[in-house]
Every structure is written in structure tokens, then in C-alpha cells.
Amino acid sequence: MNPPSRRELLRRGATASLVPLLLYVRTAFAEAQSDAGVIAGAVGLEEVAVFAYDAALKTRLLDGPTTQLLQRVKSHEEAHLGVLKAALQRLGGTAPPAPASPTASKLLAPLAKAKSQKDVLAFAIALETATVAAYYDAQGKLKSPELLRTSAEVMANEGQHLVVLRKALGRPQLPNAFETGKPSP
Amino acid sequence: MVSATRRAFLRGAGVTGVAGSAVLLGACGGKSQPATGSVPTATAANPSVDVDILNRALDVENTAIAVYTAATKVLPADALALAKIILGQEMAHADALTKAVQQIGGTPNQPKGDYTSAIGQPKSQADMLRAAEMIENTAVTAYLDAIPKLTDPKLRQTVASILTDEAEHLSVLRERLGLPPVPAAFVRGTA
Question: Do the chains contact at B33 and A145, CB–CB below 8 Å?
């Protein structure tokens, strides 16, 4: 299963500044051929999510309820990261390095350009949607029953994040019967 | 401890002679894996195993359809719109599971005639929403247990996409009931 290209993401309506982040997330598992590789990708993905929510919370564009919402979502991403790092350690894998500048600035460019709370929420929805798609891919690659279950628990939680973020942005909360993180065929 | 309502619900979901939800989980593929460092490998593709798991998932979806169909008859307008959306999605899941069973050479389970025990006798909107929350929790738990047992990776992906949708239903229903919509970082069907 090939991750989308930059051109494909733009065709689907992603803004140019979002493309680096979406590519980073959607390719997290692309090269992985083993459970350790997939989980290492998931660790990298969750590190970026924590990093992104941290930056979102520093934009000073959020009202009180939205700040609380994003803090809660960030705490979930941190919990995912902790469990996945422990799983990776058990598998003998190595965690990827946390994104450093200038990669980080490129990934978070949409937040630097955000002018309103709506922009930040739209960024969070794009991030969560791509994350769901990455975990959907992981379900097709993982072999260990334990890791399949953990990955599914995390994927379902990312879907729940989408529900509350969509509501905060005034979008329909349940647009898809099958939450794959990908556009309908 | 499993409540009488929970037991009645499980009977309605097609699980009879059981002591609690753990048995429904077993029906969908066995008990959950302990969180240990061991890494067992999933079994090779086995259509008959997958047919059995998908059919049990279909039983849960058919129960959900019965619950939401009942809900559309008693809920007020604002909650009715939500129930109709979720009902449509549960029907899409049942349709996909039916087709998946057929594609791998199995015979899809048919809806049962009576789901009274699953629906209960709701006297208020809150009762109906709680019945819906219960079926969603049961579905989430069942799908989580089914995923590691499915032998076809593509079926695991389909089931994971349904699981995620059920988890989303739970969030919306919990919000309606005045509960935190996303109570935990890992969705396990217990909240």
C-alpha cells in the first residue's frame, strides 16, 4: 500500500503548508517490514503529534474550552507514545529521533501561519485524520496480536479526537461509516 | 459483576448461556492478550476462522440496528437526527460484513426475530441513549478482541475502520448523556 504523494495530497485539497506534515505522518509505516519497524514508525508519529499539539497550545489563538480540549488530546498522544515506546523496547527496536529544526519548522508551518482558532483546529483535524490513516495501514502490516490490539485501541482513540475536534470547528461529527482516514473511493 | 441489564443485552446480541461480556469477547475471537513482552505471530490466512469471527460481528451489528431502529421511534427531533445517522452507519457495517462473509465463501448470519432483551423498555431519552451506549461499548469490545484473531490483513483493516467508527459513536452518545466524550487515551469498550 503506497502512501500518497505530495501531488496527490494537494489534489485532495490539502494546503501546501500542510503537505510536509501529512507526508511525514502518512509515510510513518511505509518502509516498515517488521513489527518493530511499524512500532518505531508509530513512535515517530506520536512524537510529532505531541510536538504539534504543544506548538498549537502556544499559538495564543485558542479560547479556554479549546485550550482544555487540545491539552486533553495532547495528554492522550503522550500516553500513546509511552505505551508504544515500551512496546518498541520489548521488541528490541530503536526509537526515531524527535523532529528537530528545521524539519520541525517545516512540519509546523501551518501553525506559524494560523490566524485564528479555526485554523488551529483545522490543522489538528488534518493531523488526526492522517494519523488514523497511518494506523489503518498498520493494521495491514502488524503480525503480533498484542500489537494489533494496542494499535486498534489507539486508532479508535484518534477517531474520538476527530469527533470532538470536528464539533469544535462546527463540522459534522460522524461523516464516515468506515473511519479509514482516507478519502472515499 | 455483570448487571441484569447487561446480561439481557448480551442475550439480545445473540450470546446465550453466558455469564458476562467476557464470553461475548470470547465469541469474537477469544480473551484479550495480556500485555506481556511475548510476541506471538498471527495465524496464517484461514477463511473459516474469519467467517466465524465476521458472523459474530454481524450479530452485534444486527443488534445495534435493532436498538437504533427502536430509538428512532422514541427519541425527540434533535436526538432523532443523531440516531438516524448512526443507524445508517450500522447498516453500512452490516452490509460490508455480509459481503465480506460471502466473498470468503461463508454464509452470513441473518438478523434474529426478537431483540427485545437488548432494547429493554426505555422510558426516557436517557434510557434509550444508555441502551445505545451499551451496544456501542459491546461492539467496541467485540471488535477489539476480533482484530488480532482475523487471519486476513485486509479484513483487519476493515474491522479497524468499523471499530473506530463505533468509538466515535460512543463519544457522541457520551456527550449527549453529559459524560466526557473521550474519557481515556485507549479505547477499550469499558467507558
Answer: yes
Phi, psi of B146 (to 5 degrees): -75, -35
- Identity of the residue in A91, A136, A149 whose CB atom sits nearest the CB atom of B39: A91
**May I ask the CATH architecture of the domain B4-14+46-176?**
Up-down Bundle (1.20)
Best A88, A90, A178, A180 residue to mutate vs chain B (most B CBs within 10 Å)? A178
For chain B, 191 residues long, give each residue's pLDDT as a single digit of tens.
334 444 443 444 433 322 223 323 333 333 333 333 333 344 447 889 999 999 999 999 999 999 999 999 889 998 999 999 999 999 999 999 999 999 999 999 999 888 888 788 888 889 999 999 999 999 999 999 999 999 999 999 999 999 999 999 999 999 999 999 999 999 998 75
- List of domains in chain A: 6-168 (1.20.1260.10)
CA angle A25, A99, A115 (to 5 degrees): 75
- The C-alpha atoms of residue A36 and residue B183 are separated, in whole angstroms, by 29
**Is there a contact between B185 and A157 if contact means CB atoms under 8 Å apart?**
yes
What tens digit of pLDDT does each residue of A78-108 get?
999 999 999 999 999 988 887 776 677 788 8
Cβ–Cβ contact A176 with B under 8 A:
yes
ipTM: 0.91
**B188–A153 CB contact, under 8 Å:** yes
Return the SS3 of B3. Answer: coil
**Among the listed residues A51, A37, A178, A35, the one whose alpha carbon sits nearest the alpha carbon of residue A127:** A51
User: How far is it, in rounded angstroms, from Cα B188 to Cα B137?
Assistant: 8
Residue B50: count other Cβ atoms within 10 Å of its Cβ.
23
